[in-house]
Design brief:
Layout lengths: L7 H45 L6 E13 L6 E10 L5 E8 L7 E6 L7 H4 L1 E3 L7 H25 L9
Parallel strand pairs: 3-5
Antiparallel strand pairs: 1-2, 1-4, 2-3
């Protein structure tokens, strides 16, 4: 009867593989934390801008779609409505302006225009359909930032849990 013992070379290979997996896992965790931190910071910045600019005037009017441009296929298909917007009081009118929302060709929809500021519609050349929930632009970025931060913290705790510890970590 002969007993088979693993050679030193085989052991070194297994150790190197575990070490490589540990490094890859650490890099993946670091990338996850970096992405989540950027997402949270962007959401907080959007929330701050929305609150700081809440007193900017909003002009309401009617958007009429004249053109739709679509990119992609299937689920990744993205369509942009472009058309004419006229303020209710008739003092402003824009052609070839984008709609943040949807409209069928020739359809009239209510849309708002907010010039000036960091996210001003004048620099983005866009009008917006009303939000389905009034004031959502003021609290939604904060809620999403909290959810992302809590998710990152929960994932950190799961990865740091002794029950999830692996050999070589």
């Amino acid at each position: 009867m002969s007993s088979h013992r693993p050679t030193g070379r085989h052991h070194a290979s297994a150790g190197t593989t575990l070490q490589s997996l540990s490094v890859a896992r650490s890099l993946g965790h670091g990338l996850f934390y970096a992405v989540m931190a950027v997402v949270v910071l962007v959401l907080v910045a959007i929330g701050c801008i929305n609150i700081a600019e809440r007193d900017r005037p909003t002009y309401w009017g009617t958007f009429t779609e004249t053109n739709t441009t679509c990119d992609g296929f299937g689920r990744s298909r993205n369509c942009d409505s472009v058309g004419v917007w006229r303020s209710d009081d008739g003092t402003m009118a824009f052609t070839d302006i984008a709609l943040d929302g949807t409209a069928d060709p020739g359809e009239n929809v209510r849309a708002s225009y907010r010039p000036g500021g960091a996210m001003g519609d004048d620099s983005n050349y866009i009008v917006h359909e009303p939000f389905f929930i009034p004031g959502v632009e003021y609290w939604l970025p904060w809620v999403l930032a909290l959810v992302c931060g809590a998710s990152a913290w929960r994932q950190h705790r799961a990865w740091s849990s002794p029950t999830n510890a692996r050999d070589g970590d």
